[in-house]
Specification:
The complex is a heterodimer of chains A (312) and B (187).
Chain A (H helix, E strand, L loop, with lengths): L15 H14 L17 E6 L5 H12 L3 E6 L11 H9 L5 E6 L4 H8 L3 E7 L5 H15 L6 E5 L6 H12 L3 E5 L15 E3 L2 H4 L5 E4 L15 H8 L3 H7 L5 E3 L12 H4 L6 H20 L8
Parallel strand pairs in A: 1-2, 1-3, 3-4, 5-6, 5-8, 6-7, 8-9
Helix pairs in contact in A: 1-5, 1-11, 2-11, 5-6, 5-11
Chain B lengths: L7 E8 L1 H19 L5 E6 L2 H17 L5 E4 L29 E9 L3 H13 L4 E9 L11 E5 L7 E5 L1 H4 L3 E7 L3
Parallel strand pairs in B: 2-3, 2-4, 4-5, 5-6
Antiparallel strand pairs in B: 1-8, 7-8
Helix pairs in contact in B: 1-2
The chains are: A alpha/beta (312), B alpha/beta (187).
Chain lengths: 312, 187
């Protein structure tokens, strides 16, 4: 299967074969991280712009490293310290950056649909690095790569996604991807943080942590997004930690011994994840981060290496 | 991609199973002769058929000399000079589980043609470390070089026209050992 898309915007639009192509490409590129000279000339002369309107550590850094390891020129734009603070609109800024002829623009924005808006406005490839509570496809891809490396396959696996589902673009992208690959997904959290549409996406719903983690291969804990919580969705952090925090004790009593613990980061230690679990033997949180660079190399390579270079 | 109307037609057989095996045996002897033995040699095969040929050469050297040489796999997709001209790049990965520093690397490919693949392979190897020397072994040299590259070991020199293709068929991939010249069938 070949890659024909100009952009990577959502997991929802991808076919299973395209997801597997992205994961396979990333898997083959992982070897570069182990080299003495971590650089290959594949994207020499290509320009990648990181356009970030929201805070980010892992995603922006790993796109930057990925681009540099492939020999692309990588330029970082962050909203603070730019003309955005002088009142320039998102689309004006984007068009100005587009006028400098980049090959790929990686965009993160707090509004759902921001990446798609850019994809329509600019002739270059757009990668969605998180748009509001909508999607975050490269995170889902690196989660899938991590799962396949640890479990050997996708088909038939059962994943519990736990916590703040309502605000989570990671959950949405993962549900789309996992369902297409024949995996079962159970989402779990307090009712105020479970949006009504998740069943339509094919996920099961649980309102009790102990039930949700009972017979699953992977537990994906989500960050409680305190910055997006305006209304009183949970009574208190302490109560949330008590009912929804994953501790060694709950793991030992309810989960399988071969379960994987994942978290997209940044971790609220002591809230959704006890420090002993985050740093414990089941945790693959740092493996996820290393795979992130490989996944982003794969995405940049497939987008910039398309036949012809432009056109849909 | 070949369209159905221009399926390649087999024009002539160049090597049969016995001749292919003899050519590899001779190359193995030449490698030992040129390097004064098997000390500090390592094989790197180019995906896909170069890897199988590298393993066969290593087995022959083990038979002749009793030395087991390491064999690595090189994918040069990331080093090509035509990325974006050939459709989706398919990365299958490089796997060289030994240090090439201070080794004489024998690069193995099935067919040597324009030399562009070997140019990319030289860059890829040098990015992994500094070998003492790199030598090139190929089963077929079909000419038409576009770069100043020449092989150290050749199974068979085969003058071809550019419109023909040379297909190396190996047991490991194709279920048979032979080399044929193909030309596009006219529609």
């Amino acid at each position: 299967m070949g890659w024909r898309r100009k952009d990577l915007l959502t997991m929802r639009e991808l076919e299973a074969g395209e997801i597997v192509l992205l994961v396979d490409t990333a898997a083959s590129l992982q070897e570069i991280a182990t080299r003495e000279i971590k650089k290959v000339p594949a994207l020499r002369g290509k320009t990648v712009v990181n356009l970030f309107y929201e805070a980010s550590t892992r995603t922006r850094t790993s796109f930057e490293i990925a681009g540099k390891w492939l020999s692309a020129d990588v330029v970082n734009f962050s909203a603070s310290g730019s003309s955005t603070s002088k009142g320039e609109s998102f689309i004006d800024t984007a068009k100005n950056i587009g006028a400098m002829s980049p090959d790929v623009v990686v965009v993160r924005h707090s509004s759902a649909g921001a990446a798609e808006l850019l994809a329509r406005a600019l002739p270059c490839s757009i990668v969605n690095a998180g748009d509001g509570a909508h999607e975050h496809p490269t995170q889902a891809l690196l989660d899938l790569l991590t799962i396949r490396e640890k479990k050997g396959h996708f088909e038939g696996l059962h994943v519990a996604i736990v916590g703040d589902i309502a605000h989570s673009r990671v959950a949405r992208s993962n549900i789309h991807g996992m369902r297409k690959l024949g995996m079962t997904v159970t989402v779990a959290g307090p009712p105020t943080l479970i949006p009504p549409f998740v069943q339509e996406l094919g996920a099961k719903v649980s309102y009790r942590l102990e039930d949700a983690i009972g017979d699953v291969d992977v537990i994906m804990m989500l960050r409680l997004q305190q910055e997006r919580m305006t209304a009183g969705l949970i009574p208190s952090l302490r109560e949330y930690a008590h009912y929804w925090g994953l501790t060694l004790d709950k793991l030992a009593r309810h989960a399988r011994p071969d379960v994987l613990i994942m978290h997209p980061g940044p971790v609220n230690r002591g809230i959704e994840l006890a420090p002993e679990v985050a740093d414990g033997p089941y945790s693959v949180i740092l493996d996820q981060v290393s795979r992130g660079v490989a996944v982003r190399m794969g995405v940049l390579l497939l987008l910039a290496g398309r036949k012809g270079g432009d056109g849909g | 991609m070949a369209s159905p109307a221009r399926r390649p037609r087999e024009k002539a057989q160049v090597l049969d199973e016995t001749a292919l095996d003899r050519a590899l045996t001779r190359i193995a002897h030449e490698i030992l002769e040129k390097n004064g033995g098997a000390k500090d040699l390592a094989f790197v095969g180019l995906r896909t058929r170069g890897v199988s040929l590298a393993h066969r050469l290593a087995a022959k050297i083990a038979q002749i000399d009793g030395t087991t040489l390491p064999v690595g796999t090189l994918d040069i997709t990331l080093y090509r000079d035509d990325l974006g001209m050939r459709g989706t790049p398919v990365i299958r990965g490089t796997d060289i589980p030994f240090s090439i520093k201070d080794k004489t690397v024998i690069l193995v490919d099935d067919v040597l043609f324009t030399g562009r693949t070997i140019r990319a392979a030289l860059d890829a190897i040098i990015d992994l470390g500094r070998p003492t020397a790199i030598q090139l072994a190929c089963l077929i040299d079909r000419g038409h070089r576009e770069l100043p590259i020449r092989p150290d070991y050749v199974g068979k020199n085969l003058p071809t026209s550019r419109r023909e293709t040379v297909a190396v068929r190996l047991q490991e991939h194709d279920g048979e050992d032979r080399v044929v010249i193909e030309e596009p069938e006219e529609a």
